[in-house]
């Protein structure tokens, strides 16, 4: 997959994280702490009439009207019970809670069904939480054995007010932006390195100074060799014949590294003799 394609899918994923949550602002308008929850069908029906979730069902945009229903569940801190109108949700293996910050019905991840007595089932609708009062008993036990410092309570309330859904979305966008920028930087570094490696292999523009430097060094070396060469009448005659017959001169490595011009003379002589014998 190309780098641009990877970035595209990642940005789409970030967009889904920000916009694909189950946050329901309408439910926050209805949440209220209560001393107890109903434990029978008749009690639920009575409390549903008082809560009157149907009045908001057709106005809210969190879910279809038929699924915007009455709930009585734990709060997210497991310190009290709350009544709330919220979208129906299927709970798997945990007690149900209403999360104030997320404005959503969800499993309470620290309170498994196996931890309470009587136990709740592995899978149930959030509106049926009243059938499993073991979760309610857990809240009552905590409330009776723990005293909350008023200052801590105020801190919690302040935190809830400041940590809004907009803040959550902002943090998510910031994290996604940071990761995308980091990914682009890494991909840019990889691209530059590959381009540089390709230039080295093909002798691209970046290597021109090196090539010119090597060429100048070779020319200087050849000029030094020519200065040490002693021309004789025989070698002069060989050169004239080579030019006349348009023959190719092969210079062995011995000429370049040992400064011995006998190799050149021998090759010239052999080529010239072979040409005239034929």
Characterise the protein shown here.
The protein folds into 2 domains: 3-170, no CATH class; 209-277. The strands form 2 sheets. It has a 5-stranded mixed beta sheet. The protein has 11 helices and 7 strands. The protein has helices at residues 3-19, 25-28, 41-51, 54-57, 134-145, 150-162, 165-202, 208-228, 233-245, 253-258, 262-277; strands at 32-34, 68-75, 81-87, 90-92, 94-99, 104-112, 123-125. The protein is of the alpha+beta class. Helix 1 packs antiparallel against helix 7 (165-202). 15% of the residues are buried. The model is unreliable at 7-20, 152-165 and 254-261 (pLDDT under 50). A hairpin with a 5-residue loop joins strand 2 and strand 3 (81-87). The longest helix is centred in the middle third of the chain and has 38 residues, at 165-202.
Count of distinct structural domains: 2
Overall shape: it is rod-shaped
Order of helices and strands: HHEHHEEEEEEHHHHHHH
Determine the structural class based on helices, strands and strand pairing.
alpha+beta
The percentage of residues in β strands lies in 5-15%
Overall mean pLDDT score?
A: 76
Task: Report the radius of gyration as a whole number of Å.
Answer: 43 Å
What is the helix tally? 11
SS elements, strand count: 7
Distance between the termini: 65 Å
Q: How are the strands of the largest sheet arranged?
A: 1-3-2-5-6
Largest sheet, if any?
5 strands, mixed
Residue runs with pLDDT of under 50 for 5 or more positions: 7-20, 152-165, 254-261
Percent helix: 55-70%
Summarize the topology.
Blueprint: H1 3-19, H2 25-28, E1 32-34, H3 41-51, H4 54-57, E2 68-75, E3 81-87, E4 90-92, E5 94-99, E6 104-112, E7 123-125, H5 134-145, H6 150-162, H7 165-202, H8 208-228, H9 233-245, H10 253-258, H11 262-277
């Amino acid at each position: 997959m190309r780098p641009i394609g990877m970035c595209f899918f990642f940005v789409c994923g970030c967009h889904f994280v920000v916009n694909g949550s189950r946050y329901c602002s309408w439910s926050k308008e209805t949440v209220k702490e209560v001393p107890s929850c109903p434990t029978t069908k008749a009690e639920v029906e009575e409390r549903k009439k008082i809560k009157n979730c149907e009045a908001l069902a057709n106005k809210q945009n969190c879910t279809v009207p038929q699924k915007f229903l009455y709930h009585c569940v734990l709060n997210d801190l497991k310190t009290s019970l709350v009544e709330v109108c919220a979208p129906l949700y299927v709970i798997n293996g945990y007690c149900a809670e209403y999360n104030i910050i997320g404005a959503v019905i969800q499993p309470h991840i620290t309170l498994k069904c196996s931890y309470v007595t009587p136990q709740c089932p592995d899978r149930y609708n959030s509106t049926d939480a009243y059938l499993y009062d073991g979760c309610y008993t857990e809240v009552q036990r905590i409330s009776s054995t723990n005293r909350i410092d008023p200052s801590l309570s105020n801190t919690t309330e302040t935190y809830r007010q400041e940590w809004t859904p907009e803040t959550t979305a902002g943090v998510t966008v910031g994290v996604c932006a940071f990761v995308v920028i980091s990914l682009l930087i890494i991909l840019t570094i990889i691209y530059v390195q590959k381009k540089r490696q390709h230039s080295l292999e093909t002798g691209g523009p970046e290597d021109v100074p090196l090539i010119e430097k090597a060429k100048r060094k070779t020319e200087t070396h050849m000029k030094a060799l020519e200065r040490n060469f002693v021309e004789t009448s025989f070698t002069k005659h060989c050169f004239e014949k080579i030019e006349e017959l348009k023959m190719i001169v092969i210079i062995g490595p011995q000429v370049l590294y040992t400064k011995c011009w006998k190799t050149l003379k021998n090759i010239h002589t052999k080529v010239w003799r072979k040409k005239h014998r034929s």
